[in-house]
Design brief:
774 residues, 7-stranded mixed β-sheet, 19 helices, binds pterin cytosine dinucleotide
Length: 774
């Protein structure tokens, strides 16, 4: 008897795609070459705000190897416009491809040079003469809303782009009026850069004979780029092909359509040569979207027992000079109540234009900000009431019986058991022992102080739709096409696991293709931890449909009734008849499908395509615990442990899930401890290189302790929730809460990220002064 195959879903398979990437055999944009390819470089503004008085390109145009020097005047008029779209609550101004009269941020492109070689293009770019008249600039969102602040887009009459509101202000006011305990805090969340290993760029090739454009770029959303190119260059959709080659990290910042993609494509068509632009690290820092920068005033109302009764939040988020969408602000307003059952809430987040680089989604995209705000408040509530922070959380969690649960902000959570994750986390770190160790220390004498910080989170994942196709080839290979696009997440392995299980074939028989619009399967892309819950579900549904069709074909071949045919160990057999006697393989069924010998309703390639749309978002959740020591003499924080108990429903590949958590926790630790994309008040970037922008290194991080609980989502056939952003959500609040916990006995009551030694030391000094604290 044949043993039933072990299901592949749930196995920690090593990702197939990684071997090639770690051996240096990846094909990134810089590895791609096309015959006759030329190079494009950009001339970017050194001013945060200036009038463009004169642009003289003559010297550059005459330099060796130069094919073209392009300014706004050379391009289609739409390329120098800043299209304004009205959002529900304000106005969004998108960036022009090249600036025409005014620059509004350092790094804004004003001209492009195309030359035979990169060196020639760079030399010529230095010859482009630009006369600027500097104008007053503002970089800080609060300063930008002050009366008399310089306006980024004078036509709007304000720097306030939009104001998003959620909840019930009257109900929240009533809760505050009646509450015995009120807490008020101000938080500043620093601006962060995404820092993928591979800087951005694009390569475009125009086939004049066929009238076809092909663009390669490291994007998380090839179909979005496709649409933008079709529109900007006025080309028929079938004549534009967008390919995401191997992508050296996305982290959300490769989600938008960069204006440079349009420029490179236009130049390739105009010059009739393949054109490549490869950004430098500095350009990446200056002009690609950063994230997070938010200033917050927040209040919590509670009972003396620490039961939360109300939440009020007002926040300003810095959009930079241009905004394509309301982006992370939408998430912040939706998620501020976190995993807690808070009866009344009123929140408001305004997007503010400043003369700084653009901001947008970066891993978490509003989720980490919301979690940081509520988790800091909950921690303060625990201190205020003299309660254990774990206990305060437990008292306020949405109970497991309440799902689906609608928050006071109108967001619907699908399923959860938050206390189970908290309990598991406390056991994982042996919380009681940590507290005992802490009690044994002498805060008056010990130089190293121990701190323990908790945070509990929710992570909305998998909203919207994604596409999937499964096709069985006549040689038995299974080709899967997905609208999701990986940047290192390991989709090829997990999607193969899902499909192989459903078809009963070995995982090696499944080939997954992604990121090429020529596959003709429109999709959305990869962000918001959506690829498994949506993309995985789409290929799962398609695989099930393929099995159904194959079963009917097999029935025809086996001369049996379809209901009597079973898929068993990767072959179709007639029920009750020994398989060896009457069975057909997948390859035989796929060949028959193409043979022309089948009735019309069964004929045609053995494939199915689906567009899976989830009826809502699947909310992953968990609890993080950070253990730190703080050196009171130097302010140096050492992260001793970072533990996370997460729940993403059933894991398809636990190894990849752990990898996602590791990466996210490292990025979250970076946010807490040192990352800061800093501008001076006039909009000059102070941290525009990896010498100035600190990133965590492996030896700054402890080994992460991970464990899980499993609460399936009712919203997709896999029961899956995403996991890609959990670490970035969990780490910042847990670490800051831990450092505050360590320094509480010294009188430190507040800290602002990033917790650099200097900042921590100053907080300790302030607290030590008479009347200090805070
Ligand atoms: N997975 C699983 N079981 C689950 C959930 C997920 O096996 N229950 C697996 C998935 O199959 C996938 C991985 O875990 O291989 C992540 O899945 P998911 O949570 O659906 O997230 P996405 O694949 O949509 O990835 C997006 C997410 C985001 S939003 C950012 S930003 C991010 C991230 O993933 N950027 C990354 N992780 C990254 N990892 C790398 N290496 N590079 C990036 O740019």
């Amino acid at each position: 008897m044949v043993e039933p195959l072990m299901p592949l879903v749930g196995q920690p398979l090593r990702p197939f795609e990684d071997g090639r990437l770690v051996r240096g055999q990846g094909r990134y944009l810089a590895d791609l070459r096309r015959p006759g390819m030329v190079q494009l470089v950009l001339v970017r503004s050194p001013y945060a705000h200036a009038r463009l008085d004169r642009l003289d390109t003559r010297a550059a145009a005459g330099a060796p190897g130069v094919l073209a020097v392009l300014t706004a005047a050379d391009l289609p008029p739409a390329f120098s416009e800043s299209p304004v779209t009205a959002s529900e609550t304000g106005q969004l101004v998108a960036a022009p491809v090249l600036a025409r009269e005014v620059v509004r941020m350092v790094g804004q492109p004003v001209a492009a040079v195309v030359a035979e070689t990169l060196a020639q293009a760079l030399d010529a770019a230095a010859l482009v003469q630009v006369d600027y008249s500097p104008l007053p600039a503002v970089a800080d969102p609060e300063a930008a809303l002050a009366p008399g602040a310089p306006l980024v887009h004078p036509a709007l009459g304000t720097n306030r782009a939009f104001t998003l509101r959620r909840g019930d202000a009257a109900a929240a006011d009533r809760a505050f009026a009646q509450a015995a305990v009120r807490i008020r805090q101000r938080f500043t969340i620093p601006r962060l850069a995404g820092v993928p290993l591979e800087p951005v760029g694009a390569l475009a090739e125009w086939d004049a004979a066929a009238g076809r454009l092909t663009v390669w770029c490291p994007t998380q959303a090839p179909w979005r780029v496709h649409q933008a190119l079709v529109r900007a260059l006025d080309l028929p959709a079938e004549r534009v092909r967008v390919i995401a080659p191997d992508v050296g990290g996305g982290f959300g910042v490769r989600g938008p359509v960069y204006p440079e993609y349009l420029l490179v494509a236009w130049a390739a068509r105009h010059l009739g040569r393949p054109v490549r632009w490869l950004a430098t690290r500095r350009e990446d820092f200056l002009a690609t979207p950063a994230s997070r920068e938010t200033v917050v005033e927040a209040e919590l109302a509670a009972s003396p027992a620490g039961r939360i009764q109300g939440l009020r939040v007002r926040a300003l988020t810095n959009l930079g000079a241009y905004a394509g969408s309301e982006g992370p602000a939408r998430r912040i307003v939706a998620l501020l109540t976190g995993p807690y059952d808070i009866p009344a809430a009123a929140v408001e987040v305004a997007g503010v234009y400043t003369h700084t680089g653009p901001t947008g989604a970066y891993r978490g995209a509003g989720r980490p900000e919301a979690a940081y705000i509520i988790e800091r408040l909950v921690e303060t509530l625990a201190r205020d009431r003299g309660l254990d922070p774990a206990e305060v959380r437990r008292r306020n969690f949405v109970p497991p019986t309440a799902f689906p649960y609608r928050t006071a902000l109108g967001t619907v959570y699908d399923s959860g058991n938050y206390a189970a994750a908290l309990d598991r986390a406390l056991a994982l770190v042996d919380y009681a022992a940590l507290r005992a160790r802490q009690r044994a220390q002498d805060p008056a004498r010990d130089r190293e102080l121990l701190g323990v910080g908790l945070m509990s989170y929710i992570e909305p994942t998998g909203g919207g739709w994604e596409s999937g196709r499964v096709r069985v080839e006549p040689d038995g290979r299974v080709v899967v096409v997905s609208g999701s696009v990986p940047q290192g997440q390991g989709h090829a392995t997990t999607f193969a696991q899902i499909v192989a299980d459903r078809l009963g074939v070995p995982v090696e028989a499944v080939v997954v293709r992604q990121g090429d619009t020529a596959d003709g399967l429109p999709g959305i892309g990869t962000f918001g931890s959506r690829s498994l819950a949506l993309g995985g579900s789409a290929v799962a549904v398609a695989a099930t449909e393929v099995v159904e069709r194959a079963r009917r074909i097999a029935a025809h071949l086996l001369e049996a009734a379809p209901d009597d045919v079973r898929l068993q160990d990767g072959r179709f057999v007639v029920a009750g008849v020994p398989g060896r006697v009457r069975a057909v393989t997948w390859a035989a069924v796929a060949r028959a499908a193409l043979s022309g010998d089948l009735p019309p309703d069964l004929a045609g390639p053995l494939q199915a395509e689906t567009r899976f749309e989830a009826p809502g978002e699947a909310f992953a959740f968990g609890t993080g615990v950070a253990v730190v020591t703080v050196d009171r003499e130097t302010g140096v924080v050492r992260l001793r442990r970072l533990a996370l108990v997460h729940d993403c429903g059933p894991a398809v590949n636990p190894r990849l899930v752990a990898a996602q958590l590791h990466g996210g926790l490292a990025q979250g630790a970076g946010e807490a401890l040192g990352e800061w994309l800093r501008y001076d008040p006039e909009g000059q970037l102070l941290t525009g290189s990896l010498l100035d922008y600190w990133l965590p290194h492996a030896d700054d991080l402890p080994f992460f302790d991970l464990a899980e609980t499993v609460t399936p989502s009712p919203l997709n056939p896999l029961g899956a929730k995403g996991v890609g952003e959990a670490g970035t959500i969990a780490a910042p609040a847990a670490i800051v809460n831990a450092v505050l916990d360590a320094l509480w006995p010294l009188g430190v009551r507040d800290l602002t990220m990033p917790l650099t030694p200097e900042r921590v030391w100053q907080a300790i000094q302030r607290a030590a002064r008479p009347g200090g604290g805070g």
